[in-house]
Amino acid sequence: MRKIAAAVRGHRKLAVVAGFCLFLLLSGAILRLSSRAGHQQTPIVLTQTKAIRVIGTEQVTVGGTSILVVKLQNVSDKPIKAVTIRAGNTWVTKNLMIGEDSIVAGSVVTQQISASLDTGRAFNTSGETATGQPTIAAVLFADGEGDGDPRYAKILTDQYRGVREFAKRAMPKLRMLSQAADKEKALDDLIAEESSQPVKGDVQFSQDYQDGMSNARTKLHMRLSEIKDQRRGNRFDEADKRLQKLERVFEGLASSPAY
Predict the structure, then answer these.
(1) β-strands 46-47, 80-87: how paired?
(2) 88: which residues sit within 8 A by CB, 6+ positions away?
(3) Could you tell me if 85 and 91 are in contact, meaning their C-beta atoms sit under 8 angstroms apart?
(4) 145-174 burial, b if ≥16 CB within 10 A, otherwise e?
(5) What is the pTM of this model?
(6) What does the pLDDT average to over 90-107?
(7) 8 A C-beta contact, residue 81 and residue 142
(8) What distance in Å separates the CA atoms of residue 66 and residue 117, rounded to the nearest whole number?
(9) I want to staple 56 with a disulfide (CB 3.0 to 4.6 A). Which of 30, 71, 157, 164 is the partner?
(10) Using 50, 70 and 90 to split pLDDT, how confident is the model at 13?
(11) What's phi and psi for 220, nearest 5 deg?
């Protein structure tokens, strides 16, 4: 009986050791598969401009939607006002044309885009979508020069021309507003005028030029409405500072030379 009991205890020890070894082997296999899966899920982002370096990408899921988070660095010697990321024939643009912010030389910004921009499908393991490889297509510099894929660079430069043309038209009105004794009435008049008049540039320019003018008008209308609300709330100092900033931004756009 003692021999039988000793044999049983020995078999149990062997079973425990074998089970532990099997656990280690399975754990290692799972870790390797997880590592490979994580590596495959990181999309590859190309670039068609020397002004931008892609320094990191991460694919995350938010509410069932696959989002690509891209970290971009300006490696040029000029500030950048817009960056277009495309996948196939669709694209998204980080647009800083109307404002004092820009992507200064050496700085890093983060851009979030839908994984396939238009299809809702996630990127596959090579970073491709149903519509093509995600790519930094073009940039727009603060001086109005574009760089990258000629098609997308022209979209940005034409839009910027439209923005600056509208700023030139708006500046006399903004100067009158800042000097008006009755700013509430002057604000109401300017908002009504900008809301009723169509925005049309020279017919020789592209639709992107017209879009730039329209975007600038929308931004002006939004800022004027915010200033109006601040004055109605007796926040006169905030309203005056916002008006000064708005005038400064449009003055800078209006005075910038065409590239």
Answers:
(1) unpaired
(2) 117, 118, 129, 130, 131, 132
(3) yes
(4) ebbbbeebbebbbbbbbbbbbbbeebbebb
(5) 0.75
(6) 93
(7) yes
(8) 10
(9) 71
(10) low
(11) -65, -45
End-to-end Cα distance, the chain: 99
Beta bridge partners of 140: 82, 146
CA–CA dist 159, 211 (Å, integer): 6
| Amino acid of residue 192 | A
Write down the H helix ranges in 127-182.
Answer: 150-179
Pairing state between β 52-62 and 65-74:
antiparallel
For 191, the token pair is: 């908002």
Q: Which amino acid is at 249?
A: V
Site of tokens 């923005």: 163
Which two structure tokens, joined as six digits, stand for 48?
A: 């068609």
Radius of gyration of the chain (CA): 29
Answer whether 252's CB lies under 8 Å from 172's CB: no
